[in-house]
Amino acid sequence: MSRYKYKVCFLGDTAVGKTSIITRLMYNKFDSNYQATVGADFLTKSFKLNQNYIKLQLWDTAGQEKFRSLMPSYIRNSSAAIIVYDITNRESFNSIDYWIEDIRNERGDEAIIYLVGNKTDDPNNRLISIEELEKKAKQNNCNFLETSAKVDHNVNLLFEKLCTSLVSKF
Ligand code: GTP
Ligand code: MG
């Protein structure tokens, strides 16, 4: 049995659901009222996976533009970055390029990156297909997944995959 500890930062435009995904993971709850994250929040969560104990230090960063200059300092210390966008919001998908650029500037090719399309519970307003996500992920050497924090779709799977990626790389 081995023990591992990793820092992971959540990035992405405002209101895409970063805090909601983490709240679903930690407390199995969902709040439809939006409360913007200020700066960043820090939480830890432990996982047991294949006889390994894995402790993740999660940095839930603020997507609002006014906090943007703080992001490199969170990215710098992280082994993995989860870039979240909203599948009903084209602009949040386009922003992935900027977030990847920030990560590459700080970490080169070292960091594991997951692209996560959130809000799959709202298919009528979907603007980004899974094929488009897959294409962007392949172009940028990233992993990818779609989730819904609201109806608890793929949230646990995201963290399982993330832990597996972290243990096999670091
Ligand atoms: P910042 O802290 O400003 O960066 O935003 P955030 O990315 O943390 O977004 P947050 O989790 O606060 O969610 C923003 C809004 O989207 C809230 O009203 C949530 O209830 C809603 N939301 C989050 N996840 C989902 C989801 O999976 N489906 C739906 N329908 N709404 C969601
Ligand atoms: Mg937030």
From TrEMBL:
> Keywords for this entry?
GTP-binding, Nucleotide-binding
In its keyword annotation, does this UniProt entry include Heme?
no
What GO molecular functions are on record for this protein? GTP binding; GTPase activity
Instruction: State what protein this is by name.
Output: Rab gtpase
Please tell me the species this chain comes from. Answer: Anaeramoeba ignava (Anaerobic marine amoeba)
